[in-house]
């Protein structure tokens, strides 16, 4: 991968993100906030789903655990403690289940991760009902501008982690086991340890994002926080953007958010149809996504 061609566009996007709040209106700021959220989630997913090839449809579980941790700690500890605590809780959960979950791969891993996310959702629902709190209002939430800056920082951190991991022994090992796990183990790659490291790392940022996003609505609802559509959106953005390229998170999140803003409220059926067509088209004809297309054009020129 050409480092300049990868890093320079990302730096330009970051520069735009820094000056963005100075002219953005209230609605535009929310759009920017959502973009940062999706970039952070997609880049984190890429650590395991892109580099290691373990496609997860349950990534929302980390988002939800982080959000639930934040809700439980809100107004007990400050924001700068609640958010990392959400990431830590999600990371610990990934570490605890990772050794067992990562023994399977392919469609079995996909189904298992989806099932775990649903299981955790219903366990949280059950615990909330036992407490007599099926939903909660959250008071004293931060402003959208505060949330924007925090999410921009997390999106940047997620991209930086992905860039660094790709260039390390861990990243090379993950790519090797993605291509052929048996061969990677044969040549000495510590497959189990690397998979667990990627799975755990990929959970921390989503936990922190969830801890922030649950505060945005000032209302906690378990089914919204653990909504499986979040996982599907992450995977779709990664595939369209390029699931093994740091630029893919930005490209995929940007394109889908743009389409969503134009079509979701006006014509949700058309939006879903277009989403399906795009997903099928990219899987069949552009498996490396928009980032791969840009790389090919760069080499051709």
């Amino acid at each position: 991968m050409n480092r300049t061609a990868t890093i320079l566009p990302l730096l330009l996007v970051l520069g735009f993100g820094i000056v963005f709040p100075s002219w953005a209106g209230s609605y535009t700021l929310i759009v920017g906030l959502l973009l940062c959220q999706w970039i952070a989630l997609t880049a984190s997913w890429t650590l395991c789903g892109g580099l290691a090839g373990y496609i997860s449809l349950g990534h929302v579980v980390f988002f939800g655990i982080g959000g639930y941790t934040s809700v439980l700690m809100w107004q007990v500890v400050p924001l700068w403690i609640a958010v990392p605590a959400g990431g830590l809780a999600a990371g610990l959960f990934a570490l605890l289940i990772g050794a067992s979950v990562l023994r399977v791969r392919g469609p079995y891993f996909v189904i298992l991760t989806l099932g775990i996310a649903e299981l955790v959702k219903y366990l949280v629902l059950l615990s909330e009902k036992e407490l007599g709190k099926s939903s909660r209002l959250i008071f004293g939430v931060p402003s959208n501008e505060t949330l924007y800056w925090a999410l921009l920082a997390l999106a940047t951190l997620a991209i930086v982690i992905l860039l660094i991991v790709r260039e390390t022994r861990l990243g090379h090992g993950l790519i090797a086991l993605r291509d052929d796990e048996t061969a990677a183990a044969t040549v000495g790659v510590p497959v189990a340890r690397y998979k667990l490291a990627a799975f755990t790392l990929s959970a921390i940022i989503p936990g922190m994002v969830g801890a922030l996003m649950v505060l945005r609505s000032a209302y906690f609802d378990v089914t919204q926080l653990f909504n499986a559509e979040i996982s599907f959106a992450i995977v779709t953005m990664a595939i369209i953007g390029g699931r093994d390229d740091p630029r893919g998170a930005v490209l995929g999140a940007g394109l889908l958010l743009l389409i969503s803003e134009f079509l979701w409220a006006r014509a949700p059926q058309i939006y879903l149809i277009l989403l399906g067509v795009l997903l099928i088209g990219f899987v069949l004809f552009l498996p490396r996504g928009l980032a791969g297309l840009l790389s090919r054009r760069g080499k051709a020129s």
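The chain has a mean pLDDT of 92. The CA atoms of residues 279 and 285 lie 10 Å apart.
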